[in-house]
Every structure is written in structure tokens, then in C-alpha cells.
Amino acid sequence: MAFFQPDTALPLISYKARRAMAPYIYLAPTILLLAILMLFPIITVIRYSLLDNVIMNKHPVFVGLQNYKSVLANETFRISVGNTLYFTIMSVIFHLLIGLSFALLLNSKLINSKIRSLLRVFYIMPWVFTATIVAIIWRLLLNPVGVINYILTTLNITSSNIEWLASANTALHAVTFINIWAGYPFYMVSLLAGLQGVPGELYEASIIDGANEFQKFWYITIPHLVPIIISIAMLDFIWTMQVFPLIWMTTGGGPIRATEMLSTFTYKLAFSTYKFSLASASAVIILLLSMSVALFYVRHQKARE
Length: 305
Known about the structure:
Layout (H helix, E strand, L loop, with lengths): L14 H35 L16 H8 L1 H33 L5 H16 L2 H11 L5 H8 L16 H26 L3 H9 L4 H29 L3 H6 L11 H10 L4 H29 L1
């Protein structure tokens, strides 16, 4: 190509320099697009967080970190942090336990291949629904006169209908359960692929050495799955911490802030009370929390490489 001819194009730049620049020239459109769609909005939000109430105030003034202090001192913010941590940690733990259990089941040779295929379709079904559909399904199921309460009262497990999503005692556990149900297929598929990549010779050698099923699982299966588990757990932590549609369409952060998350708290600051600068400060705090986990994820990936 003429671009790489040392005696025709760009005579003042060496041939090696042009070769080194070529990949960046090809990547320039993508980098520019990412800068417009991601970097510019982030910089704008950070700028808003350092000003007086923007948008509502025609001439906002610089207030420094005052918005961050106000957000951190807000009682609802502290409640939303606790709810978000509970929601996220419980979701990640049970995503892993359920996903690993189903992956082991689908990888087992004790089950007929046709049955395994049917189970694979059945288990992955929650993953094909959007957050909106998931929220609608479970609002109907957990309705005081819905299917769940009907089954529980019929079996005499409860004596009366339970307000699953409208009671402060059960709402957070209910939305956490819904998120666990909707998210475990991601773990199941990832771990099933990892299980199918474990060399069979290792299991055969362990049988010769007299290892039982638990020892094979603990000393062969788990070590091979640890890199996958760490990667998907960190990604899941980042995604779950930012969940908004599921919470908003089931409880809206209520009742009495029982399911208030960082995402719903920030949304309400911006579009319910029109405190856009405080909402920007809250969004930056969420960004920093996510970036801390993302940084750990990137370091882990580099260590694996």
C-alpha cells in the first residue's frame, strides 16, 4: 500500500514511525466515538457535581465538594448504600451457588442427553426476558392475591396473604430473590463452558489415586473454575450495583425506602426533586465505586494473561 512506502508519503516521518502510527489511525474513529458517547458525558456530570444546582439555575456557581458532602450526609443515601450492598452481595453469592449447581447438573453424564437439552433450555429461560418482563411477571406472582400466596395459603404454610413487595419487612428480600432468579443463567452458561474444558485425564488419574467425588470436585473442578468465577463475579457485582429497571418497576424504592438503591436515589434526586447537581454528585460516587471493582477486575485479567 502507498501509505507504507517510505519514499512517497510523509517523507519527514520515518517508516517505522508510520508503521507504529497505523493502528492508531485505524482506531481513531472508534476512539472518537467513545469519547463523544462516554468521556464527554462523564466529564459533564463531574462538572455539574461541582456547581450549584445546574439546569434549574441559569447562572450556577462553583461550590466545590459541597454537593458530595450533602449527598454523603443524606440519610436516604446511607440507607440506599446499605440496601445496594445487601442486594448486590446476596445476588452475587446466590447467582454463583445456583449457577454452579445447575452447571454441574447439566455437565453430569448420569443424566440422559435429551433430558439435559430440555433442562438447558428450561434453566436459561430467565435470561431471555428483559427487565421489564421480569418485573411484570414477578409483580403478578407476588401480588397479595397472586399465585405465590395462593400456593402458600393452600398448603397452610401461611395463614394470610403476604404483601411481598409492599411490606418493609419483605420487599428487599423479594426484589433480591427476583434478581437472583433473573441472573443465575449467566453463571450457569459460563461455568458450564468451564466444566467442559476441564481435562478428563485429571479425573481418571484421581480415580486411580483413590479420590472420592468431593475430593475430585474440590481439588480438580474448583481450581479450574476459579479464574472464571472471579471474572464473572466481579462483572456481576458491577452490573448488579447499578440495577435500576427491576427496582423501579417493582417497588420504586419503597415502601418507606426499604428497597431504595443508589440508582433509584440518584434518579429521584434528578427527576423528582430536580436537584441535578446533587444527582450528579451521587452518580460520580457510584462511578467511583464501580471503577474500584473494575480496576480490580482489570488487574486480575492482566495477572491471568
